Amino acid sequence: MLLYILVSFLAAIVSVFFIRRYFRKHAQSYAEDAPQRFHHGAIPRLGGTGIFLGWLLGLVVALVLDAGLAAKASTLGSVLGIAVLVFVVVAVGTAEDYTQTVTPRWRLFLTAVAAIAAIYWLGLTVPRLDLAWVDSWWVQWPVLGVLLTFLGLIGLTHAFNLIDGYNGLAGTVAVLIGLSYAYVSFKVGDRELLIMSACMVAATVGFLFLNYPRGLIFAGDGGSYFWGFLLALIGILLVQRHAQVSAWYPLLLLIYLIWETVFSTYRKLARGQSPGMADALH
């Protein structure tokens, strides 16, 4: 396990370093008066690509060397499916970071497509709410579990984007959530989710070496979408696979992000603004 963590950590540092070096000129095109711009100078927003590459390389090494992970064909298919889906979401965010032309509506639509694909490909659902008076009829309406899964994937993917403005905030929140997921995955014996969580934490820490406190590179939409989508997937899978994991565990763990999304949506609607409009009032 330590090897996979080390690979993700080092790969993320190297990837983020080269991205910062070779894409710094591209950052000069970012508007100085952007509503969420708190920094000065040309700072690339493509750090999410480096985080994803670090996480992915750690997973690849685990699939090659970890007999327990690659032994089952179902586990291998699940890991590969998650990797592909996360790549699609990261690509959507990175396209916006690089071109600044992908509208919020298109990003929402494309991440929704990825969420639907994840539900179909991985058979995702929230099978219970751990409320006796609700679960008796919840199981009779499986569409409710699928709908809640869809909302969770979409909501958390974009929730991380709301707090991605100050150096280290979104990354540190992702690390704390990932550590909790890794611990619970270890306790329930889910090696697949343990490795995914641990590699995500390691890759994010590698990114934070260049992001915090000086803000030499930002995660951007690509990094925010990576954290949100992957952490939503892991949380849903933990509840779905393991009856001893409370359905309220991911909700309480992610309550800061959920509240930020709900309140920001209310605040913008109350002001007559579109919820997709960026501002600095979070």
- Major beta sheet summary: none
Radius of gyration: 18 Å
Low-confidence stretches: none
Give average pLDDT, whole number: 85
- Number of individual domains: 1
| Fraction in helix | over 70%
Instruction: Provide the structure class.
Output: mainly alpha
Helical segment tally? Answer: 12
- Following the backbone from N to C, one meets helices and strands in this order, namely HHHHHHHHHHHH
Strand content: under 5%
Which word captures the global form?
Answer: globular
Number of extended strands? 0
Distance between the termini: 37 Å
Structure description:
The chain has 282 residues and is mostly helical. It has one domain (2-270). The protein has 12 helices and no strands. It has helices spanning 2-22, 47-65, 67-70, 73-99, 104-122, 132-138, 142-163, 169-188, 191-211, 220-241, 248-253, 255-270. Helix 4 runs antiparallel to helix 10 (220-241), helix 7 packs across helix 12 (255-270) and helix 8 (169-188) runs parallel beside helix 10. The radius of gyration is 18 Å and the shape is globular. The mean pLDDT is 85.
Provide a compact summary of the structure.
With 282 residues, this protein is mostly helical. It has helices at residues 2-22, 47-65, 67-70, 73-99, 104-122, 132-138, 142-163, 169-188, 191-211, 220-241, 248-253, 255-270.
Topology:
Blueprint: H1 2-22, H2 47-65, H3 67-70, H4 73-99, H5 104-122, H6 132-138, H7 142-163, H8 169-188, H9 191-211, H10 220-241, H11 248-253, H12 255-270
Helix pairs in contact: 1-2, 1-9, 2-4, 2-9, 2-10, 4-5, 4-10, 5-7, 7-10, 7-12, 8-9, 8-10, 9-10
